[in-house]
Amino acid sequence: MSQKNQTLGEFIIENQTSFKYTSGELSRLINSIRLAAKVVNHEVNKAGLVDIIGAYGDTNIQGEEQQKLDVYANEKFIQTLTNRNIVCGIASEEEDDFITINSQDENNQNKYVVLIDPLDGSSNIDVNVSVGTIFSVYRRVTPIGTPVTIDDFLQKGNQQVAAGYIIYGTSTMLVYTTGVGVNGFTLNPAIGTFYLSHPDMKFPKDGKIYSVNEGNYIHFPQGIKDYIKYCQMEEGNRPYTSRYIGSLVSDFHRNMIKGGIYIYPSTSKNPNGKLRLLYECNPMAFIAEQANGKASDGFTRILDIQPTELHQRVPFICGSKSMVEKAEEFMQQVTVST
Ligand code: AHG
Ligand code: MN
Ligand code: MN
Fold it and tell me: 253: closest CA among 197, 331, 194?
């Protein structure tokens, strides 16, 4: 039985057998992520002291300016997963293509691929606001012992075996699921250990917070505009409160604890929205569903979307179930009436 204040290490061992493909491999993988999280946390925490703030001087494949910490976090997660020889492939928001691990080594019997957003919310680094890391884990679909292919990465989100995020906030937390609920662990920085602080996390069914970048309002689809007006209307438990940090991890984390909805819709400039299906939306959707929440693009369950490319973007509506359903209703009403 998991207990509050149990260490993450103890929790992983104790819960290993509840995972349907138990072999210890996934436990080792989560352990490596725990280690990389501590290393990145250490660097994030001294961001104001060392020369780690600011732009790296390059752009990623999606044309976004990379920050020094984006590059640092990317290297650390890839290094940790590669050195310990526990995965067969990695895809990252900051890499043009996926990385094949030990393709020459027939002894690489690893079955898992990992997809990461190494640093989420990186525009917040310079101003000392919470950022995060998001990860997603799949079993490979190609034969074990052969080099991974794109098919191993372009799997529907409903095939994920684990997903989680680290939030580098007022305290650092690691929150993850292996498909049997969601648990949150808080880092005690004095001794470098994560403790179970938030067992069995659940979204309240309904909430009062909506999180959307309203600066883009005029570019939103009519359904989202209508939903935002609904949030602001004086009726029942409305108007809702607007809260938008600008790091998905932080906005999601708050909404899961307090009840709320996060929206990054399509805009006339970005018809598929901004968030990446594989590195951001799928892992957050898996966690949301495991916590009784919901995630959709307005019409389709995020986890049922068939990815067609690594850096694909999708509109994203995620949070408390009743709120997401209401937003979907508005989206679908407009489609019917036009
Ligand atoms: P990233 O830093 O990994 O590129 O992600 C930023 C994402 C997400 O975390 C956040 O919610 C959203 O971009 C903010 O976008 P806007 O500044 O357009 O609101
Ligand atoms: Mn991100
Ligand atoms: Mn990022």
Answer: 197
